[in-house]
Specification:
single chain; mainly alpha; 1 helix; Translational initiation factor IF1
Length: 31
């Protein structure tokens, strides 16, 4: 399950880098 968690973390990082700050927020609990 560590692999899936890492993939979600990477995906989250890509989202935060792609969109401006405060425009898109994903709770860590949702990941």
């Amino acid at each position: 399950m560590q692999e899936s968690k890492e993939q979600k973390t990477i995906h989250y990082n890509l989202i935060t880098q792609s969109l401006p700050n405060g425009m898109f927020w994903v709770p860590l609990d949702f990941l």
